[in-house]
Amino acid sequence: CIAKFGMQDPPSLTDPLFRAIAADNLKTVRLARHRQEHGPPFAEKCEAACVRAQEAGLVEPEMFEEKRRTLTCGASLEVWVAGAVQGATSRDRVKIDLGLQVGNVGGYEGTHIVALHPRPLARKQLVLLPQRLVQEVDASPRRGALTSAGSSELQDPFSPEGSSNAEVVGRSPVAAAGPETGRALEVPIRDFRGEPKEDLGLMDFTAAMEVLNGVGGVATWMGLRAGAEFRQPLDTHLQVLSYPLHSQGEDCPLRYPLELLFESALRDGVQQLKVFPFKHSFSALPIREGTPEEKRKQPNVLGQAAFDAYEAAKATFGEGSCSIAFTTSWFAMLPLEPPAEGSAPGEAWLQLPPPHPVALCGIVVAPSLQRGFPETAGLEVGSSTGKLVSTRALEEGIPEGTPEFEAASREVRIAARILGCPAELMGVWAKV
């Protein structure tokens, strides 16, 4: 032993040090075998897919005109001002390049396809697509299908000029990644308003927890039962936005703006947060009693807890429209009350729709607003009504039933200063 290993008295097989070394070696061997059989961990797959998609030009991060940070009730909230809202959309499906696909989650069945969002709010914004809704299709342009420029390039899925069945892959023509396969994933909307079965179920939450365990982040979803549809098809599906989610730079220790507030609320058992002056729910994930400690972080256990929290929130607020956000430790819901399509409030809905549900963790994405009358005349919207979203009829006190009322009630007036009031932005369409 001295000649071969430089040790006079090597440890015996029963020595604790020897056993610890053997256990580490066995773990390394098992991990190598698992990787060989099942591939790299999900986080590694996700990062590799993100790098490939960026290099291929398949993703184009959302551009923000401005990012504001405000303090509300002692908590930090951010407003990210994007471009103008495109208005109502009739698009019912979209094609995305296979280069955006990360992999499958949801147990052995692989119930969901995970794909990168082509226009992400954060670096890695993942979309969870139920396998039963998605199909692989030809990504080639249809013969004779030309863009407005007269070329045969595929149209942009996020362009208002695109048709309801625009042949689009990612954020670039199919030439960016398609020549190898010529294939794409066709993704329809998740028809929550038309099909009761399209409500989120246990498998959706379990798949989301598998992703959250792998990459970390916040899962979000908005379900609309009414109101004009303003979202693109991908945004009707469950999503995961990976950390960090804030604009304060790499030196900030927070993962999202409301992290400290949420941790305090979880410790104290608080279910109503002062930072949100509207109906909402917030709670720790209700892990079922008797669950062994070693199983409490498994996707099926966490998925069941999130599903139970979702069902409890619906029992409180009803089966209507809502925004939700959740992690592996908490669940939050904001019940929404969309206006009827074609109604006077519906005009305001299209100009200032409810923000992306990531607002529930402190990032309020809002469209840019141009100052109009009376602000251009030095007057404030809401000076007489106290409302930041109003109409000319309300502001000028035009009585209902008068000849001018109908037209005046459809002239939406939105105070530009609402962009500095993130909680008010979130509460515009909150259920009363």
Stretches with pLDDT under 50, minimum 5 residues? 142-169, 171-180
Secondary-structure class: alpha+beta
Helix content: 25-40%
Would you list the SSEs in sequence order as H and E? HHHEEEEEEEEHEEHEHEEHEEHHEH
Q: What's the arrangement of strands in the largest beta sheet?
A: 4-5-6-10-9-12-13-11
What do the pLDDT scores average to? 85
Work out the helix count.
Answer: 10
The proportion of residues in beta strands is 15-25%
Shape: elongated
Largest sheet properties: 8 strands, antiparallel
Describe this structure in words.
This protein is an alpha+beta fold and 432 residues long. The protein has ten helices and 16 strands. It has helices spanning 2-5, 16-38, 42-55, 202-215, 259-268, 299-317, 344-351, 392-396, 405-409, 422-427, and strands at 66-72, 75-82, 93-97, 101-105, 112-116, 125-130, 135-138, 183-188, 218-223, 238-241, 281-284, 322-326, 330-335, 363-367, 389-391, 412-414. The termini are far apart.
